[in-house]
Amino acid sequence: MKEFFQGISPIKFEGRDSKNPLSFKYYDATRVIMGKTMEEHLSFAMAWWHNLCASGVDMFGQGTADKSFGAVLGTMEHAKAKVDAGIEFMQKLGIKYYCFHDTDVVPEDMEDINVTNARLDEITDYILEKTKDTDIKCLWTTCNMFGNPRFMNGAGSSNSADVFCFAAAQAKKGIENAVKLGAKGFVFWGGREGYETLLNTDMKLEEENIATLFTICRDYGRSIGFRGDFYIEPKPKEPMKHQYDFDAATAIGFLRKYGLDKDFKLNIEANHATLAGHTFQHELRVSAVNGMLGSVDANQGDTLLGWDTDQFPTNIYDTTFAMYEILKAGGLSGGLNFDSKNRRPSNTAEDMFYGFIAGMDTFALGLIKAAQIIEDGRIDEFVKERYSSYSTGIGEKIRNRSVTLEECAEYAAKMKKPEQPESGRQEYLESIVNNILFS
């Protein structure tokens, strides 16, 4: 098979003092932390759309990176070249998972979905053939139901029943591909499930139709043997001004309202969290305490820019707090997918590797430090003590939900007034984090 990334050897762990840019400083796949290897904790995945497709195009300029991989763009030869290049890329980085939208892996036929589906059959056969003797697997599949003009008003939320049915057909094929490739999950990325103005919108109808789409997809998936998780990926504002999947709490409420919470979990993206006005850690915690933390899109945004920049994660605080939540939740059913793309001026093959190395090292260091915070115990002990009034007496009855309003009122009357709550000591706790991070 042709070597696409010539001159780049498999990336090895060389330790924090290495000056070799094509080496891992913190990601040691076999290192055991809290009973599991780094590879098991992190389950890194390559996102087809950014790594193999994104050429640096933005709203102001054409692409700067060549992602043709020696083939003519928009052909099945190019589709197969991306498979070959992707496998080589993953093997050189030691990445075991990939994920994709349907139109990432094949060119869409704009006139006939049957042609597109035949191409998907061909390329998934090719993927299975090329990964047969490797340990590379599919993390999840999804469908691009946002790029084509037909989806200008969304997929499940479209005002057109014809478009709804077309979206359902795409999802059907996507779920079949998930089964065929042995994927852990299937994602609904609601890129346009929302509205611009209520003047032309029937919100109740749109929400109910989205639920119908999810329900029939769930039922079909289970009927053909799909045992993985269905995921919603919360995303605020962009591109629609008001999106029905704004954040984790909104998505969870939607799933429970329509009885989908037993089959669906959330795929949380760091950049989407900040666009919603939350921290990455917050969205992970909300998902975890509701039993719906599934998978993660690993990236970061730029707080000075108001859109989804999908940068490689390099902020150690963010990845430490993220891995703290993931460890406390018992891990992910999915994995850590790098929904990250090189900056437009970073346009060489080497830059593709530098981006992944930076992201993998940043999450690896976050894992190391999160485990140290947990093993140190001071923060967990502080939180436990802060809520200790709920472990006995009236507090215990509140926690057991055995208290009455009259009991609370009688208790308050005897107190006359409560004592001031203990200090939250935020600065002290943040200094503990700094001490662990930089010791």
TrEMBL record:
HAMAP family: Xylose_isom_A. It comes from the Bacteria. Keywords: Carbohydrate metabolism, Cytoplasm, Isomerase, Magnesium, Metal-binding, Xylose metabolism. It comes from Lachnoanaerobaculum umeaense. Belongs to the xylose isomerase family. Binds 2 magnesium ions per subunit. GO terms for biological process: D-xylose metabolic process. Mg(2+) 2 binds at residues 269, 272, 308, 310. Mg(2+) 1 binds at residues 233, 269, 297, 339. One of its GO terms (molecular function) is xylose isomerase activity. Homotetramer. This is Xylose isomerase. It is found in: Cytoplasm. It catalyses: alpha-D-xylose = alpha-D-xylulofuranose. Its EC number is 5.3.1.5. The keyword Cytoplasm applies. The gene is xylA. Its cofactor is Mg(2+). The active site is at residues 101, 104. Its main location: cytoplasm. GO terms for cellular component: cytoplasm. The lineage of its organism: Bacteria, Bacillati, Bacillota, Clostridia, Lachnospirales.
